[in-house]
Amino acid sequence: MDNERISLRLEAEDLGLIDDFVAKHPEFSNRSHLARIALRYYIEKESVQPTKPSKDRAAAKIPAVIKGVIDRMVEDGYYSSVDTAIEDALREFFLPKERLKEVKESSFDETRKAIARL
Q: What's this model's pTM, rounded to 2 decimal places?
């Protein structure tokens, strides 16, 4: 049962706030999109249990605008989950050949400087 509808009654003042927000934030296409993202964010925020640190886990605070974009991409089917989208973005940033070369050279320079100090 995809795309079920709910009714929500709001005061004119609340609708004005929503409309102003949507007008200033093009990452939200309309009131419904903002409501879906806001509700999902609130529920996820309230139900998040702190995870124990491990080798393959990290926690980061993501700006709401970026989280909204990621949520929209998941919603539109570009990614299967928020985790997948974030993993892909991190892979793109950290694993290009140019980036790896920079990291290797930087590590080599730091090691050389440390040896020189001895």
A: 0.43
